[in-house]
Amino acid sequence: MLCIIDMQPDFTAASSLKLQKEIPVEINKSQSMGEPILIVEFATDPPNSFRPTFGWITSLIRDKSIVKKYHDDGSDEIIQFCKQNQISPYEIKLCGVNTEWCVLETAIGLYRKTDAKITVLSDAVASSIQISEETQGRNYDPFQYYYQHKVIKINGKTNILKDQYQVSQVG
To answer: What's the rounded Cα separation, in Å, for the pair 42 and 107?
Structure first.
């Protein structure tokens, strides 16, 4: 299952050229494998204060579903969607923005609440802080910076390792 998090015009990082290249790749992979794709959008009260997911993303997805979340961690909304649609994913892949807030908090929430393998697709995530730091020539690793966990490489993806309870960035 692929979850696309907060790819809305209101988030600076969502306009990243890297994401405009990588997210369509992930969408195509998931669709070719018949995996469900879920768009997770940040929302607030009053409604409509955040704009919906970019049209260039929604137009690529044949069978799209959209859920709204009202805080950084979207794990409850993803789990509820899976239950309502009788989906028991072996793996939940996450992409979108912002890496060190919504993506990471959702990954940790899913890790704590499900038995699925949680994978953050490191080539298909971004954050405004990361873009700012890299523009200034500094390397920015939100996983190391915020959570100080061991860095490992597994198939070019960032993984949350259930048996060791570590959030790990693939570089």
So the answer is: 15
